[in-house]
Amino acid sequence: MTRSGDERALSEVVGFILLLGLIVAVFSLWMTYVIPAQGREQEIAQMNAVKDRFTEYKAALDSLWLNNQSGITISTSFNLGTGGGNTEAGGFFLPVSRPRSSSATLSVLDTGDRLAINASSQPLQTTTMSLLEYRSANNYWLQQRYYYQSGGVFLSQDGGTANRISPGISIVNNSDNTVAVYLVPISITGGGSIGGNGPVKVDTRLRPLQAPTTYQLNSFVNISVDVADNATALMWMNSVFNESRVRGGLTNPAYYTFSVKENPVTKRGSAYINITGPVGDTTGDVYLTIRPVEYVVTLNSIASGIT
Question: Is 26 helix (H, G, I), strand (E, B) or coil?
């Protein structure tokens, strides 16, 4: 082989190595920046869809008890994770050139949370605050936990717990110097957990309704919750109890008290609001109405990829 031929062969080898290096560099940039960005977008879109699904779920359940549809079962589908898996493309691309699918777990849980209602004219009533929970297992976006509890929708993540849709608690300062407290303590029974990715069907049935009970001429009404931690208790006090009384026009601090405390041993949190009304805690000017609601919830897998 002549010298010029050797040089051409060498230049071809060098060119191939440079081309291969360029391909590797581009692929590395793709894997480092593009794939995570695509994965985040997909997981953010999925979590927004979960939020919307919980909103629709609450509206559907409220419609059942508002229309007294006892014994009626509604079915709601929740999609776990982004789904779809890796797809193999042609050319130099490998299956890993697409974002990894996220997964999630949907559960019906009794976490030990309780709602307690006490008043001067009736004994303490305690309701179990079981929940329907969607817990993400994201690969590119922060972990989020949406749950339906006591008629409300909540979001828990690294920054704390937020009240997305309030439970059925109404506190109204009437023009006749009375306060009306209306509570719809909603409980769900059932159990089970399904994890993976793909759709899961949630069947929810309304049990026979009890008639609402009104307790008149109370000198006080106390509403309290015992929840997982102090941060969640603080959320209940600020975003549920206090927002409810502000919406209802009860703004004079002489008419109510509230507090949050943490159990030093269990680290669970509790919050309460105590309502005495405009005249004072020795006068029966607080009216309490309780409308208990109970649902039976079951989970059913409707796809392969979930356990």
Answer: helix
What predicted TM-score, i.e. pTM, was given to this entire model?
A: 0.86
- 8 Å CB contact between 196 and 306: yes
- Give residue 305's pLDDT: 54
Q: Residue 84's pLDDT is what?
A: 44
Distance, CA of 159 to chain centre: 14
Extract the tokens encoding 46: 């999925």
Question: What are the tens digits of pLDDT across the range 100-120?
Answer: 889 999 999 999 999 999 999
CA distance 139 to 43: 8
Are 178 and 184 spatial neighbours (Cβ–Cβ below 8 Å)?
no
Q: Please report the beta strands in 81-212, taking only residues with DSSP state E, as ranges in sequence order.
A: 103-109, 114-119, 122-128, 131-137, 145-149, 152-157, 160-165, 169-173, 179-183, 186-189, 192-196, 198-206
Q: How many CB atoms lie within 10 A of CB 140?
A: 18
Q: What is the mean pLDDT of residues 141-145?
A: 96
Cα torsion angle, 98, 99, 100, 102, sign: negative
Cα–Cα distance, 180 to 173 (Å, whole number): 7
Query: 199 and 77 in contact (C-beta within 8 Å)?
Result: yes
Cβ contact 119:285 at 8 Å: no
pLDDT band, residue 90 (cuts 50/70/90): very low
Would you list the domain boundaries of the chain?
Answer: 3-301
